[in-house]
């Protein structure tokens, strides 16, 4: 894992809040959620974000400063707009795609920060789309969750299944990109997530009745 990526993971939660509280704070207010969703499209200034989320610059600036302090966002670059005035452009924390081996080499704190940033991005996009009404009137939308009780082998099978599915999703993305390059179609951006983690509580769900699907 490159040094810059490690520094990114170390920065989250080093403000007045810890890692978990930083993420809870980031997705705990609609303006911050809209800011994060906007920054997923690319770097933007406070003034630009104020226009995007349709909120006063002072309000947006406050939320940006809090997100920046926690390490939930970072400064992408700066531009001198006048002789004595510098304008900062912000971005969400950029993370590469890690292999299983690279994750295994991380410290526990780095792994926790990595998980937290993924949860932050997924939750921000999910809530922003929910508020925007994007989860209705789409007949092909896929929303599902459950708690399942599996043995050691089942846990491995579940991880393999999710890994295979994620690989197929990436191939679908590449195939679509190739077709759009030929057709000129702009396409629509969708959010796809895949979580498979141990539940914090230990109570197992009731087993399915015999013959149930």
Q: Briefly note the CATH topology name of the largest domain.
A: Arc Repressor Mutant, subunit A
Mean pLDDT: 90
Shape: globular
Computed Rg:
20 Å
Fourth CATH level, the homologous superfamily of the largest domain:
Winged helix-like DNA-binding domain superfamily/Winged helix DNA-binding domain
Kindly report how far apart the N and C termini lie: 43 Å
Number of domains: 2
Helix percentage range: 40-55%
Report the sheet-strand fraction.
5-15%
Broad CATH class of the largest domain = Mainly Alpha
Largest sheet: 3 strands, antiparallel
Any descriptors?
213 residues; mainly alpha; Arc Repressor Mutant, subunit A; 3-stranded antiparallel beta sheet; 9% strand
Task: Put the structure in a nutshell.
With 213 residues, the protein is mostly helical.
Topology:
Layout: H1 3-11, H2 19-26, H3 30-39, E1 44-45, H4 46-53, H5 57-70, E2 73-82, E3 85-92, H6 100-104, H7 108-131, H8 152-183
What does this structure look like?
The protein is mainly alpha-helical and 213 residues long. The mean pLDDT is 90. The protein folds into two domains: 122 residues, Winged helix-like DNA-binding domain superfamily/Winged helix DNA-binding domain (Arc Repressor Mutant, subunit A, Orthogonal Bundle), CATH 1.10.10.10; 50 residues, no CATH class. The radius of gyration is 20 Å and the shape is globular. It has eight helices and three strands. The termini are far apart.
């Amino acid at each position: 894992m490159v040094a810059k990526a490690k520094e990114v993971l170390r920065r989250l939660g080093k403000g007045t809040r810890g890692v978990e509280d930083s993420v809870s704070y980031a997705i705990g207010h609609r303006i911050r959620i809209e800011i994060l969703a906007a920054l997923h499209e690319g770097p933007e200034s406070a003034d630009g974000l104020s226009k995007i989320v349709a909120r006063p610059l002072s309000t947006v600036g406050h939320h940006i400063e809090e997100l920046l302090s926690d390490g939930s966002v970072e400064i992408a670059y700066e531009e001198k707009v006048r002789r004595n005035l510098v304008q900062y452009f912000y971005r969400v924390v950029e993370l590469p795609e890690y292999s299983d081996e690279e994750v295994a080499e991380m410290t526990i704190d780095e792994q926790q920060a990595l998980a937290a940033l993924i949860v932050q991005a997924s939750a921000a996009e999910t809530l922003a789309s929910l508020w925007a009404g994007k989860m209705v009137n789409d007949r092909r939308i896929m929303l599902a969750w459950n708690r399942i009780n599996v043995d050691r082998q089942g846990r491995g099978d579940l991880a393999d299944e999710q890994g295979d599915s994620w690989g197929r999703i990436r191939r679908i993305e590449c195939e679509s990109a190739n077709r759009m390059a030929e057709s000129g179609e702009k396409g629509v951006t969708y959010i796809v997530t895949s979580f498979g983690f141990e539940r914090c509580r230990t109570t197992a769900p009731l087993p399915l009745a015999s013959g149930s699907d």
